[in-house]
Specification:
CATH topology of the largest domain: hpI Integrase, Chain A
Number of helices: 15
CATH superfamily of the largest domain: Intergrase catalytic core
Shape: globular
Number of domains: 2
Largest sheet: 3 strands, antiparallel
Number of strands: 3
Order of helices and strands: HHHHHHHHEEEHHHHHHH
CATH class of the largest domain: Mainly Alpha
Length: 312
């Protein structure tokens, strides 16, 4: 039995010495897509990080990689001036890759298992004020077809806190205007139901009735938001649209499509929403991701304490 196990490990070692690391990376990304059902953007990010690590290792084979090699790579990233959060992301990608290799018995030892991830300071994202959000949503010219569509997209993004990928992937059948709810697939293909209010409902109704029929005839697409050619809106396309309205609304600072998601969460908490409900609406699998907004809860608790405590 011992001899057979030795022979098996010997054959595995010979196999690993012959197969380039790129092939294992390709197999791993297939695993992420098929087994883990990760989004294309997540898979691209993992592939980028692991390929960069592989290029740093040059010609080293999988089983030649030691813990010190990984630590050296992390130091290299820091010396390049990358943020602590970015270095943590690289390490997370590499850890996931090696965990897969070890589970699949493609490596004999996991050199990354004992390395702790750096704990980056979680910076509060840039948040628009309610007045800035109003100005941004009012920026599209709703006398035009494109303006009606863009107005509906901005209203819905702020009303639901959707990620941009979730917004542009919405199907017409996933939005229920009669009750003000939509269904969306978030990260990891996890479905959630998110409510929205009258402002978003009216904007979407206007778009569906007055704009979408004329463009959907070109492709018969089932997507909710379409381009003038009747094709699906892209992340890059929406980003260009948003930048135009940011300029028009004269909003300064670093504003991205994700900024409206942050504004959604912040403004809800400022008005008394509980963290758990906001977590569910944002689609965070772990409440620690939502706790970046807890500064708002602390400020509100201080106000309540100062106002109501008898010795405040």
């Amino acid at each position: 039995m011992v001899v057979k196990r030795f022979i098996l490990y010997y054959k595995l070692l010979i196999y690993l010495l012959k197969v380039p690391m790129n092939e294992f990376i390709s197999t791993y990304t297939d695993f992420l897509k098929i087994e883990k059902r990760q989004s294309p953007n997540t898979i691209t990010s993992y592939r980028h990080d692991i390929n960069y690590f592989a290029s740093y290792l040059l010609s080293k084979k999988l089983n030649d990689v030691k813990t010190d090699d990984v630590r050296s790579f992390l130091i290299f990233l820091r010396e390049k001036g990358l943020a602590r959060s970015t270095v943590a992301r690289y390490l997370s990608s590499i850890k996931s890759f090696y965990r897969y290799l070890y589970t699949e018995k493609l490596i004999l030892n996991n050199p990354i298992e004992i390395i702790d991830s750096p704990c980056p300071w979680r910076k509060l994202p840039n948040v628009l004020s309610a007045e800035e959000v109003d100005a941004l949503i009012a920026a599209p010219d709703i006398k035009t077809s494109a303006g009606l569509r863009d107005h509906a997209m901005l209203e819905l993004l702020y009303a639901t806190g959707l990620r941009v990928t979730e917004l542009i992937s919405l199907k017409l059948s996933e939005v229920d205007l009669s009750v003000g709810y939509l269904r969306t697939l978030g990260k990891g293909s996890k479905e959630r139901v998110v409510p929205f209010g009258d402002a978003a409902r009216i904007a979407i109704e206007n778009y569906i009735l007055r704009v979408r029929p004329s463009v959907s005839q070109k492709t018969e697409s089932t997507d909710l938001f379409l381009t003038r050619r009747g094709t699906t809106m892209t992340r890059q396309g929406f980003w260009k649209i948003l930048k135009k309205y940011i300029t028009k609304a004269e909003i300064s600072g670093n504003v991205s499509p994700h900024t409206l998601r942050h504004a959604f969460a912040t403004h809800l908490l400022e008005r008394g929403a509980d963290l758990r409900s906001v977590q569910q609406m944002l689609g965070h699998s772990d409440i620690s991701s939502t706790q970046i907004y807890t500064h708002i809860l602390k400020e509100r608790m201080r106000e309540v304490h100062d106002r109501f405590h008898p010795r405040g």
